[in-house]
Specification:
The complex is a heterodimer. Chain A is 37% helix and 10% strand. By secondary structure, chain A is α/β, with parallel strands linked by helices. Chain A has a single domain (6-339), classed as Alpha-Beta Barrel (TIM Barrel), CATH 3.20.20. An eight-stranded mixed sheet of chain A has the order 6-5-4-3-2-1-7-8. In chain A, helix 4 links the parallel strand 1 and strand 2 (102-106). Chain B is an all-alpha fold. Helices cover 67% and strands 0% of the residues of chain B. Chain B has helices at residues 22-35, 43-56, 60-72, 77-109. The longest helix of chain B is centred in the C-terminal third of the chain and has 33 residues, at 77-109. Classes of the chains: A alpha/beta, B mainly alpha. Chains A and B meet through helix 10 of A and helix 3 of B.
Chain lengths: 351, 111
């Protein structure tokens, strides 16, 4: 398990340019595998373009109480990047002035942001249809000051989406750190106790499954059935849906792939599993991702590779929806992660 | 010329067996895919059976394929190892049950 972010370790792959170089060279430069742009061109799409802007995903800071082995954000306790209150206010304005119906707060652990509660209260008052907070669960148990988060989430009708890589301790702790499984289970029980994930409740608790290694996720429905059965029997836990998310070959997971000599086989698996139907529903076509400093991206993965939107509008300060939507989505080989098999997005499979 | 009989990259070329016999290749892969569909047995159960059989026939390609598939299905290592022991028990049992033949032959020829 890593103890520090790649950035703090001064790893070569902390550089986004090095990651992009790695993804464009080797098996892709030699022609052994087609580049993503070539693959979608075969399907008759010369480029990917946005549809209607529906989801605003705000990454409000990279600080996290965990250092997960697969984290595409390279988040951790040593990351200090945080969205300022002025930028949070600009996001509120964007929500007010556009038809965005889903607000998706992520990080890091967004709850560690000093203005988290201030922002949630204001954003909830604007009445977005679906207000998601991506909680790593353990934060609820990390410190006394976070113990009332389930009640806070309930008060603002937050849709909680949480990572739980597996329904057993071993795989979860190997990916997310020792003791994470136990704390996560306790946190889910706390969320269940206030009504989250209960059959007769409208408080939604969805879990996210990431494969704990160099393999692709299996069938979402089958895994959801296995998770529900095991978590109910072992811990009397309920949740709504399981989202399967493919690990993107970027940041810390890319570092793992290279170090474990799985990189080429993993890219082969992604390319071979390319599903044209998934391309139709990739999340970058209806999402806008905002970085802590107000820069805009097609998705959270492009944010981590610092591939800013290909538009004259690159920052919240210059936001202009019509101009921004008239752009081409930035792509590289990591995009195969969203089109493999049943597809992958922050809301799970897309096919 | 390859230096080993088994090359892991060859697994990716499995479908190429259809090149020299497209009709039989298609029939085989259609049959193969149908066999593994959800039926009276779940696809998960079939995957574990495949893993056990892969060890019985000692096919490195099949072991690789069904280890990976098991991971994707969320099958954990305890389940996979139990399946391998089922293969081991049947293989071991298949040798040992012939011991009866040996014992009977021995006894018949002995005074």
């Amino acid at each position: 398990m890593p103890q520090k972010s790649l950035k703090a370790q001064k790893s070569i792959l902390a550089s986004t340019q090095k990651q992009l170089d790695l993804l464009s060279n080797g098996i892709f430069a030699s022609g052994e595998l087609p580049q993503f742009s070539e693959r979608i061109a075969d399907q008759g799409s010369s480029s990917l373009r946005p549809k209607k802007l529906e989801i605003l995903q705000m990454n409000i800071g990279y600080m996290c109480n965990q250092v997960c082995a697969h984290c595409h954000v390279d988040a951790g306790p040593d990351r200090k990047e945080m969205m300022t209150r002025a930028t949070l206010e600009k996001c509120l304005k964007l929500i007010e002035t556009t038809a965005v119906h889903t607000l998706d707060l992520t990080g890091g652990a967004p709850e560690m942001h000093p203005d988290f509660r201030w922002f949630v209260e204001r954003a909830a008052a604007l009445g977005v249809q679906d207000f998601i907070v991506r909680s790593n669960l353990t934060i609820i148990r990390a410190n006394k000051k976070y113990n009332d988060l389930p009640q806070f989430f309930k008060a603002h009708h937050i849709h909680v989406v949480s990572s739980l890589p597996f329904y057993k301790k071993e795989k979860t702790d190997r990916q997310r750190g020792d003791g994470v499984f136990k704390k996560s289970i306790e946190a889910i029980q706390m969320l269940n106790a206030v009504g989250y994930g209960q059959p007769d409740s409208d408080l939604l608790l969805d879990l996210v499954y990431n494969p704990s290694g160099a393999f692709l996720p299996g069938d979402q429905q089958a895994l959801e059935n296995d998770f529900k059965k095991a978590l109910k029997a072992d811990f009397d836990i309920d949740f709504n849906q399981l989202f399967t998310i493919t690990n993107m070959p970027i940041s810390r997971f890319l570092d793992y792939l290279v170090a474990s000599e799985n990189y080429e086989d993993y890219m082969y698996a992604l390319v071979e599993s390319y599903n044209p139907a998934a391309l139709e529903n990739v999340m970058c076509t209806n999402t806008l991702s905002v970085r802590w400093d107000g820069y805009l991206y097609d998705c959270d993965f492009n944010q981590m590779l610092d591939l800013k939107v290909d538009s004259p509008v690159q920052h919240l300060d210059d936001f202009n929806e019509a101009q921004l939507q008239d752009r081409t989505i930035c792509i590289s080989q990591h995009c195969y992660g969203c089109t493999a098999g049943a597809g992958s997005s922050c809301q799970g499979s897309v096919v | 010329m390859k230096t080993n009989y088994y090359q892991s990259q060859d697994l990716k070329k499995f479908k190429n067996i259809s090149d020299w016999s497209p009709e039989l290749g298609k029939k085989f892969f259609d049959y193969y895919n149908s066999v593994f569909e959800e039926g009276a047995l779940t696809a998960r159960e079939k995957s574990l059976i495949a893993l056990a059989v892969a060890h019985t026939v000692q096919c490195p390609y099949c072991i690789d394929a069904y280890t990976q598939e098991g991971l994707q299905r969320g099958i954990d290592k305890a389940e996979m190892m139990e399946a391998v022991h089922v293969a081991g028990a049947i293989r071991g049992g298949a040798s040992l049950v012939h011991g009866v033949q040996m014992m009977e032959g021995y006894n018949k020829r002995s005074m």
